[in-house]
Every structure is written in C-alpha cells, then in structure tokens.
Design a protein that fits this description.
alpha/beta; Rossmann fold; five-stranded parallel beta sheet; 18 helices
Amino acid sequence: MNLKKFNSLIDLYFYQAEKQNQKKYFLEWLNPKNKVKFTWEETSINIYKLAKNIKENLKDGERCLLVSENRPEWLISDIAIMLANGITVPAYTTYTVQDYKYLIEDCEPSVIILSNKLMHDKLKTIIHEKNFIKKIITFDDLQNVDYNNKYLSFNAIIKKNFDEKDKINNLNLKRETPACIIYTSGTGGNPKGVILSHGGILNNIEGACEILKPLIKKRPTFLTWLPLSHSYEHTVQFVQIAVGAKVFYAEKIEKLLENISEAKPTIMTAVPRFYQNLYNKINLSMKKATGIKGKLIEQTVKLGTKKLLKQKMNILEKMMNFITEILVRKKIKKQFGGNLKAFVSGGGALDKKIGQFLNSIGLPTLQGYGLTEASPVVSCNPIQKIRVETVGPPFKGNEVKIAEDGEILIKGENIMIGYWNKKAETEKVLKDGWLYTGDIGEIDPVDGYLKITDRKKDIIVSAGGDNISPAKIENQLINFPEIEQVMVYGDGKSYLVALIVPNKEFNEKKEKINEIVEKVNKNLTLVEKIKKFSLIKENFTIENSLMTPTMKVKRNKVIEKYKNILENFYKK
C-alpha cells in the first residue's frame, strides 16, 4: 500500500474500511463484564455518528481530551475527533487529579471523552470549573449526571438511526495538520504536549508496514494492552488499520497471559519490562528442568543462539536444532496462542541477553527505537536480520546522523511540529529541522544499523565528576530472577548505592542479594560499583506513582519517598 497518497489518517481509515468484509468483527474487548465488539461496518457508522456530535461542540483545531482504558470505543473516538477537525489529546487513566488539572489547563479542550465512573470522579471538579469545556461524552452511562445538558452518552449516540446525510466529509486535513497532542510521561516535572501531524504518523505507519510485511500472510490479529494514550500504541492502532487486522483489547495487565491465549495474536508490541518478566519466568522454569529435559532445553538455547548469530552448525547440530524446534520451541509458541510471528519491543532499551534468549527459544523479538517526538518509531530490527545489540536500521523517510558529541539526531516528516505552548522548549530540541534526541549512539557503517550506547539524560554525575549510566548497572542486576526491581542512586556522591525490590517468589535473604551485587560489581568499573544497598518491600508501580505508564521508574519520586534511607547510606 502506498501511504504517501493519503492526506490524513482519516483517508487511510475509510480507504481500508471499504476494502474489508463489512460484517467481520474488527474490534473486540476481552472484558467478561463488558463484551463490547464492533464489525467494520459498525465501526465506520459509529465514527460518523460520534463525529457529528463532536463537531457541534468543537471548532476546527480545538482539542478533545480522551481519557479511557483500552477498549473499542477508544479507536472510534480518536478517529471521530479527527473527522470533526479536532485534535485528540489522549491522557493516561493512571494520572492523578493534579495531573489532569495541569493537562486541561494547558490544552483547554472543548470536549472531554471519558470511559467510566472512576475517570469521571477524578475529573468532575475540574470539568465544572472550566468554562471552555462545552461537552462531556461518557462511554459508560453514569448516574447523577445530566445527559440532557452538558453530558452526552456514547451508547445513546450510537443507538440513533443513521442517515447518509449525517456523514461528515473532512477534506481540510493535510499531512502537516496536527492529529494529536501526546503528553510525554517524563520521570520528573510537568509533561510536555508533543504535537504530531497526520503525515508524521502516516510516515511511521509506512515504516512499520515494511517491517511487518514478511510476517503477515493473511489477516493478522493484534492484542492491544499498552496504554493507547502512549505514542507507541497510538501509532500501532493505525498500523492495525493499515494491515486490515482484527484487534483485541486486553482486559487488564493481570489477565494478559489469559488474553494472549484467547486472542492468539500474530504480532504483539510491548515494553522492555514485559520481556524482562517473561525472561525471568521462562528462565526460572527452565532452570528447574533436569535430566534429558534439562539437556534438551540447554541445546535449544545454545543452538537457537547459534542460528540467531548466523554461526555455522555441523550436521549433528542441525539435526538437534530440528528436534528442539518440535519438542521445545513449538510448545513455547503454543503458550502464546500458537500464531505469534514476532514480539516488537519499544519504549526503552531491551537488554541484549534477554533479546538473545527470547529469539533462541523461538520467540522472535524485534527491538526498535523511538521517542514521542518522532511519531514515535525511528528504527527497528527486521525479521530477516535480527541484531539484538542494535535497534535496527532507520525507517524509510527517517534521516539519522550522529552529532560530534555522539547524540542521535533525526530529520523527516515523522518529527513533531513542536511542543504545545512551549516555544523555548521546542527550540532546544528542534534545530534546523533536526530533532536532538538526548540519546547517544552509533551507526554501523556496513549495514546502517543503529546502536544506542548511552543517554544524555538520566546520567549520574559522581562527586568526582564521573558520568555514570544507572540503567547499565540496573539492567545487569535485574537479569537475576531473584531481583524484581532496582534503582541506582549517587548523583553528586562519592559512591553508588541501590534500592532493591527482591522477587517475592524466592523469599531470599539479604545474603543472597549481596552475593548477586558482588557478582555484578566484578563486571563494573570502580566508579560504577554498588557500595551499599537496601531491600524494599513495596514494588515501584504506576498506582503508587513510582513508575510512569510505560513502566519506567520515576527516579525523582523514588528518591523523595526513600529520602531517609538514601541519606543514611552516606552518614559516617
């Protein structure tokens, strides 16, 4: 498909929708309490119905705040907002009341679409004190709200009869028109609203379709579980449209493995945290295997790694690899529905060891790289040539170069228009059309593969002036199944310390964790070594505000919470 012919994401959707079997299901929510599902025909009609109601309350270019868990109504709303010539502003359901207040005051939405009572309870005070909010649309019907006045019911809207004359044809959208404002969930401070264009996202879809082409032989199935308010999954939903996919929405993270078994996805996108947990679980199970079974698993990993690294195998190894494919890898694939062609990893750095392991046991894992400001994907490993230590070659249309100080710079249609209401911040990162990513990397001169080597931000500067990457140390520690989470600390200090959340399945004593720390320290330079650590009982989670919705530790929040412990590390 030539995506350059489309002026907007709206054009893409309706072009693809017309090609599909109208009676086939397109969207389905795996929530037993609310089994919502729509055919392609129903999806299109509902988009038109909702767009009509939105347009009555929103002028061209005005914003619509969308606050909801992942469910079919999310996609319908997103496209309806764009069709009404509005700009979608997705927001995480995990935001605090203060977060919503900041977002609403910053982007001033004319319309708010929210999912349920919980979201409404968080927002209702702010909603009623802001005069610029004209309408609130709710997916679930709520009690004690006036649906005849400021509120509209999504269910009531879609139940209305549809007339062809109600169709909205938006011909004003251009590739450079803003499609959405996605607020970055940074590890500290207020988030910045990243303005992404229709053309920027279309450009990204084109690159993604190239990656997926060898993996898709028929209508693929996707399981959506990452928050749609994140730029990564937001773009993925349009990739799903572009390939004519069947889309399932996961019930919740806790039910993910059950949902995978039910949906039987062809492709799954996830963040490194998911693969870390998966690695620990599979690795732990394999370690328990003994005898012939243990030897077979050992050979599976060994020979799978050889194949991945394109190392030559003798006849016996080839035969053994064939046996392990049937007896081990096939069984592992079955646990993920049996149809899985590949995992796609984004939203952070995937540890090389984990990537290599997953690929070796028959779970192809394609690591990519991106950031919200790039719509968001910059590069990704293709299935034909996976190099786990890299993030693959840049997408078509992405120009990438390395600055003198090693910073990765990107140019292309996919680059953001700018930060909403933040001209100075925009000018800091956009210079002469180049986006300054804040990431350090190198490009392989032979095949053009990009490798991320460090990060300008999240760098610890020791009292001695040494620049230390905490992520490097943390990744080594969490490779041990005994350790669930870790945060390294030591900015401006004479040595490094760590807060460690042990894996509760092990009930290990501090002595065992100490052994692991000592083992890791042997592979670190003098300034990188962990001198002291403390075991923390409470996990870093989204719910306790110690983690972003994309599962990155909020370092400033953790430091604030455990201030006393951290200060005591340095008392003489």
